[in-house]
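Reader question, answered in our methods column.
A reader sent in the components of a multi-part assembly and asked whether the whole thing could be modeled at once rather than chain by chain. We filled in our standard form and ran it. Here is what they sent:
COMPLEX SIZE: two components
ENTRIES:
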Amino acid sequence: MSGPTHVPGSTGPSGPAPAPVPPARVRLAQWLADRAVMATAIAVLAYLFLPVAYTFAFSFNDYTKSNIVWNAQSSPTLEHWADPCGAPGVCEALITSLQVGLLSTLVATVLGTMIAFGLVRHTFAGRRAAEVLVFLPMATPEIVLGASLLTIFVQGFSRFGVELGFATVVAAHVMFALSFVVVTVRARVASLDPRLEEAAMDLYAGPVETFWRVTLPLTAPGILGAALLSFALSFDDFIITNFVSGDTTTFPVFVYVSYLRGIPAQANVIGFSMFVVAVVLVLLGQALVSGRALRTRRSRR
Amino acid sequence: MKRRTWLPYVLLAPGLAWLAVFYLAPLVQLASVSLQSPFPGYPGYYYRNVDVGNYVTALGSFGAHFGRSVLYAALATVFAFALAYPLAYAVAFKAGRWRNLMLVAIMAPFLTSFILRTIAWRQILADDGFVARTLGVLHLLPGERITETWVAVVAGLTYTFLPFMALPIYAGLERVDPRLIEAGTDLYAGAFTTFRTVTLPLSMPGVLAGTLLTFIPAAGDYVNAELLGSDTGTKMVGNVIESQFFRVLGGYPVAAALSIVLMGLILVLVGAYVRRFGTKELV
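And here is the structure of the entire assembly that came back:
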């Protein structure tokens, strides 16, 4: 780029140079670039939402056999929203997914949080190996995770009475969510100010009390975020689940399996509702956190 | 604080035990299955052995699928980068108080099931849809249609894994000190020069993390190829693994060999990355 070379502070002995004002041409280019970036970002977000909008629209389709083509002969209908469990199996699949999601989130969050604390707060022999083991599942394609789990469930663990089903799905979901929990919680623990805990100790709080009353509350947002992420990963997982689920049908498996004979519009109703519930929950959570931050700031004054 | 040397081991033991049983042991089992030999005279039966025959079959018969997986995943990664970077940049530097809302918006489509969204793409790209008709009128299509071609598969992969590209880039950009960017503008570098010489290089760790987190799942995906691609010419290695496991009698040792090769390829890529940047950036 051409333009006069200007080194701040080199203009003479008269103290610091005034903040340089870029020439109008540069400012115009900057303004245009800003607008272009924002417009592109909004376009990309629209692209991310386009299929969600389609899912929503087709939840009103008055179709006869397959809900793939819009039935223009008939007007949109609310009947699928009025009876979201109307299609056989769809609500059972949703309930299975919610159960798997909640259970695997609980286990993965507890185990992952423990690992995160162990890795951040301590140095010990074998730490590097532990880090690699935690990291590897994230770097393994889901199809490989699914194929290897199916192999060992059928050929190795079956001698201990393991059968494909609800338990194997939960075990698999805990496994792949665990690493994401560790990464998320670890970032939060690492950013804690150690002086807060030292202060608690100085005030004669024992290590256990310090942990429960200072460290854990301060880490809570990270743990909550990790739990949400882990639930989302579990709820949306298809590839691994399809390998290890046996006769158990989660919601994504239900949708995939019904694709050939036609997905009922109730699946669209449920898929879109989950999206709305998630957005509302996250926004409420954020409002809560920022509200609390605001109150804390006020009470400090 | 008194250091208790046993404490970290107690904290790590349950989680690592879970990973040992449900991650490491299955991989070892998969590797051992990939080396089994066919039982002579009993088609579909195998016995434990150290036999690279399955690998020869895997690469000989399904080399094209392997190539497609790498190619499609690479293309999807490039497109996802092109779309995700401006998005992440806007969220990090231009969104102001909308930042959190935009972050939620990037992640929210996850909860409408990935399968439902991929089926929605099939509808959007259908022959009589506006996308196919517009591109058809403009003569921008390689053939007559989009669905059942590689274009649809790559588009689907790009869409599916875009958030995995956008979030690490955002995390990387957020760590860039804005004063460095201001310094660029103060020195009369134009917006583009500042971006090219300051912002982009500083955000590279995030970009590489996003590249891995997009490429890995994209290379292993089979749902997009199954739902958006054709029956023959666009199948990826994931499709082969899936159908060898579920639909081919005694197909699992070859499927296991394919999985191990895929895993090996990815480990090479990840190893190169980790050696360069460590595991910190892989959020």
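What stands out: Chain B has one domain: 62-277. Chain B touches chain A through 97 residues (CB under 8 Å).
Send us your own complexes using the same form.
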